[in-house]
Specification:
By secondary structure, the protein is an alpha+beta fold. The chain contains eleven helices and 22 strands.
């Protein structure tokens, strides 16, 4: 039999247990669920509009990327080829690519458009090489540029592919992706030897990071002049065409397109080295998120990439919203020594105003409730004449302070002197005296 005293003690510990549990739950939510339960070895959630990484797990670790490579292949082809109806001739090398493939044959011709759908919907490796050769041969010498691709040797085909890979790497550098290196247009694992300017050689693998893969996808859907075509191709459920007396149907294998409202685009990938990979985008209301996953399981874990993607996208939707910030900026006058005021009277020193453009302009940022904008002013407090209106006097920096205390620079504006201050020197004094006695 439980006595009244025992019931009181038991009730106290029950209440304490509930209080502790509630406290932990509230704390976890207050910190925006800082840790997600992910399968991927490397993962990133990116704000596609600002390029800010909202969540990262081993975000900057260089890793194999498999067929997620093909988003870069696709956007480079789109930006290089004006007419998607142009015909691509298949080489023996392209037709020799391993599965997954369209089974194109040496000497056959296909439209660029048809091979792009093959590339992005079915992830065909032979289509990737055929497109890479078609664009890359333009950057070879005149002989190979004008040679029929159907008669290319394997070595000549590799030269054209290498020229295309150079375009891919150039685009990556333009986007600030310095830890990405492309060797193949289809994402098959590869290693090459690079000779540096010093004559030293280094081994480089086909790789990227989750952060940079997400940024490349962001470029494809947001910034590229061919973004609309990229989205049209990657969002198409299926595409059928007939060519060379054969009929083909390409089905879209990006299952994420039907998993969440607002799913925008994406590309899967797999090699034995890379494991399952995925990069995808979602747009809901005024927010656009990109998720990149590398090494997200191996067979038989094909579904891990979908659960990770949904979890990270939902994290973004739950915790990140656009908020308006109106930061206050306080400027100090600058002490200027040895000058003359604008009406010509001499003086020994003076304080002059500092100004700037758009200092009070509201900032609209995608943030959590606990993130803040911090303003830091850096300006001169003393200077010697002469000073001209518009001369730089410092800067105002705006930082986003995250919940963990880390700060990221989001905007910087210059400060200027508001008026002219001439230097009070001997020649000025002589002119000043002359003007007085000439009156």
């Amino acid at each position: 039999m439980i006595t009244r005293g025992k019931r009181i003690i038991w009730g106290f510990f029950c209440a304490l247990f509930v209080w502790v549990q509630v406290g932990v739950t509230v704390s976890a939510e207050g910190e925006a669920a800082a840790e997600l339960s992910l399968y991927a070895t490397s993962a990133v959630l990116l704000d596609a509009d600002s390029g800010r990484v909202l969540y990262g797990k081993n975000a900057d670790a260089p890793m194999a990327m498999a067929s997620t490579t093909k988003i870069m292949t696709c956007i480079v082809v789109l930006e290089q080829v004006e007419d998607l109806g142009e015909m691509v001739t298949v080489s023996a090398y392209a037709s020799s690519m391993p599965k997954v493939k369209l089974y194109i044959k040496q000497g056959e011709q296909y439209q660029v458009r048809e091979l792009l759908f093959s590339l992005m919907l079915e992830s065909h490796n032979d289509a990737a090489v055929a497109l890479a050769e078609y664009v890359g041969k333009r950057y070879l010498g005149e002989e190979l540029k004008n040679k029929d691709t159907a008669t290319y040797t394997a070595e000549e085909s590799k030269q054209a592919v290498a020229a295309f890979a150079a375009l891919m790497n150039e685009k990556a550098r333009e986007l600030g992706c310095t830890e990405t290196h492309y060797i193949t247009p289809n994402g098959l694992d590869a290693t090459e030897t690079i000779t540096l300017e010093t004559g030293e050689t280094v081994q480089k693998e086909h790789h990227t990071t989750a952060t940079e893969l997400a940024r490349i996808m962001s470029y494809c859907i947001k910034e590229s002049v061919k973004r609309d075509l990229f989205l049209e191709i990657t969002r198409t459920p299926s595409y059928s065409f007939t060519r060379n007396n054969r009929s083909f149907t390409c089905a879209n294998h990006n299952s994420f397109l039907t998993m969440m409202d607002g799913a925008l685009s994406g590309k899967t990938g797999f090699t034995n080295k890379a494991g399952y990979c995925y990069v995808g985008a979602l747009q809901r209301d005024d927010r656009t998120f990109v998720v990149a996953l590398l090494a997200c399981g191996w067979p038989n874990n094909k579904s891990y990439k979908w659960s990770d993607t949904k979890e990270m996208m939902q994290y973004g939707l739950d915790y990140y919203n656009y908020r308006d910030y109106a930061p206050k900026v306080s400027l100090q006058e600058v002490y200027v020594e040895g000058g003359v005021i604008p009406n010509g009277s001499p003086y020994e020193s003076k304080y002059i105003a500092v100004t700037g453009d758009k200092l009070e302009e509201p900032l609209r940022l995608l943030t959590t409730e606990k993130e803040q904008v911090v303003v830091r002013v850096s300006q001169k407090d003393f200077c010697q004449a002469p000073v001209r209106a518009g001369d730089e006097a410092g800067s105002v920096s705006y930082y986003l302070r995250e919940e963990n205390g880390e700060e990221t620079l989001i905007k910087e504006l210059p400060l200027y002197f508001a008026e002219d201050v001439k230097r009070l020197d001997f020649s000025y004094i002589l002119r000043y005296i002359w003007e007085i006695y000439s009156l």
